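Shipment paperwork, digital attachment
Item: protein structure file
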Amino acid sequence: MKRYFSLTLITTAILAGCATTSITSDDVAKGYNSIQADEIAKHVKVLASDEFGGRAPSSEGEKLTLDYLTKEFTALGFEPGNGDSFFQEVPLVSLEADSDMVLNIGGKDYQNKKDMVMGSSRISAQEGIENSELVFVGYGVNAPEYNWNDYEGLDVKGKTVVMLVNDPGFATKDPNLFTGDAMTYYGRWTYKYEEASRQGAAGAIIIHETAPASYPWSVVENSWSGEQFGFVKDNNNMDRVAVEGWVTVDVAKELFTKAGLDFDTAKAEAAKGAYHVDMGDLAATVNVKNTIKKSVSYNFIATLPGSKTPDEHIIYSAHWDHLGTDKNRKGDQIYNGAHDNATGTAGMIEVAEAFTKLGKRPDRSMTFLAVTAEEQGLLGSKYYAANPVIPANKTVANINMDSLNLLGKVKDISVVGIGKSQMDELLATAAKEQGRTVSGDPKPSSGGYYRSDHFAFANMGVPAMYAGGGSEAFDEETANYRKRMSLVLRGCYHQPCDRYRDEWDLSGAVQDLQLFYKVGFDISQQTQWPTWNENSEFQRK
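Attachment content:
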C-alpha cells in the first residue's frame, strides 16, 4: 500500500543557506512513496538465490551480481560512476588454509573449527609457529590517548600473544574507561592482529566469548575458515604475524589452568589496567598450508549527475558480497546472505529509483557504491578509500545500508555511532515527519560503527551515517512478530539459513529507506555541507 508522506521542500532547522530549486514537495513525495516492500523483496530474491551462490568475491556469483546491478541502474538512467565504467577493479588474493590442521599446546592437539580456527595473512604457501611461547597480553591494546599499553616493557618477538576480544570499557562498563560499553576500534579483531604484528609477535590468538564478540563461535567457525581475501601487497604481507586465529573460551580456560593461572582472575586484572603475564612453559605449534589464488574483484559505482554542482556527490553505500559456497560443508552449502546484505543492496536500488521520480535532478550528484569483500574485513571500501573515484573534498556525505530492518515498523530509528556528526540531526528532522524519534546504538558493545563500509568514508573525513531499525515496535502485533523473527535472524547471522523468507515484514525497511532518501535529498539541496561534531574522532582532513 502506498503511503503518502507530507514533506517540506528542504530541511531548514539544521544547515543554513538553502539553495532554491524547482523541485516541488509533490515531486519529492513521488520518490518517497515509490519505495515499496514488494520491490525490495523482488531484488532480494534474485540476489540471495541459490543461482548467485552466496555472492563470494571473484566467483560466478560476483559476475551475476554485477550484471544485475548494471542492468538495474542502466534501466534507471544512471551513468557509469568511474569514467565510462560501472566498475572499479579491486585486486585481491585469496588464501585458503588446509582444514586438516591441529594446534598443539602443552602436548594436546586442538581441532580445527571445534576448538580453534587458525590461518595466516601472509601470502605464502606455508606458514607456522613451532614451540612459540604463549604470553597473555590482556586486551592486546596499545592506546596512548587512553594511557594504556598492554605491551609496555614486553618483548614478544618469536612469541604468540593471547588476548581478549573487545576492549576494557566493555568489561567494566566504566564510561571513563575508553568509551565504556561502546566498543572502540581497539576492540576489533582487525586491530588486535595489526598491533600484534607491529609488536613483532610470531602468532596472535584471540579468545572468543560470545557477549564481548557480539556473535557466537559458529560465526568464527564459518567466517574465518575457507577462502580468506586480502589485498595484493609488494611485501606479500610478510609484516603480519605468521599465524593468527581464535580459540574457544573453554580451550582458553584449560590453557590458563595448565599455566597455573585462573582465567577469570587474569581477565579481571586485564580490565583494571595495562596487563600481561607469561603463560608458564606453554608453547604453541601449528602449520598452516595455504592455497593461494590472485584475482580481481569489483566495486560497482553508478551516478545520477547533479543539475547544478555535479562534481559534488552524496554517496550511498552497501556491500554486495557474502560468504559464498562451502563445498566441504554437509547439508546446505550456500551462504545466501539474504539479510546480510542482499537487503542493503536491494535498498540501494530502491533509493536510486526514488531519485529518478523527481522530474528534475537534485543539485548535487547522487552516487551509489556497492562494494566487494566487506565480509573479509571491509576490503572493498578500504580499497575505495585508498583509491577514491570521487575525491574526499568532493564527497559531501555518505549514507550506508547494511542488513535492513526486517522486524516491522518502529517508532524510533537507531543510529550506530550516534553523536558523531550533523547527519544525526538531519535524520532526526526527517524521522520527525514520520512520527519517529532518533535513538542511540542498540548494541554499542559490538562496535558497529567500525564494522561496516561507512567506516572507510569516516576515515577519509567524510561525514558518514549508519542507521536503521529501532527498538520500539509500532504496535503490539509488530512487537510479537519482532520477538519471533529476531531469534531467527540472530541465529542465521553468517549461516546458510540467512535466506529470503516470505514471512519477513519489510515495512520497517521501507520506513528507513524513505528516510535515507529524504536525508540524501536534503543534503543535495543545502548550500553548506554537513560536518563532524567537535567531539568526534573523525574530522575533515
